[in-house]
Write a structure and sequence with these properties.
5-stranded mixed β-sheet, 87 residues, Archaeosine Trna-guanine Transglycosylase, Chain: A, domain 4, 48% strand
Length: 87
Amino acid sequence: MMAVHELKILPEYFRPQLEGKKNFEIRKNDRDYQVGDTLVLKEYDPKTNNFTGINMLAEVTYITNYAQKDGYVVLGTKRFKLRIVDN
């Protein structure tokens, strides 16, 4: 079963994800991430200690712990493309 993970992300990492320039996340593997899971990336501004209200969805496409600190993984990601269907 695929899971949905809501994750806080700083603006300097969120913007490249949103623009399609960054296709990975390095995260502590405390959620048992699996290929096919959905990440809800929620931009968080540490200067204001608040979420900005800008979010994006990404699918986990690959997972590795190669050359990471213990308990951390690299999640390969692909941004979801949203389509609006007019009936």
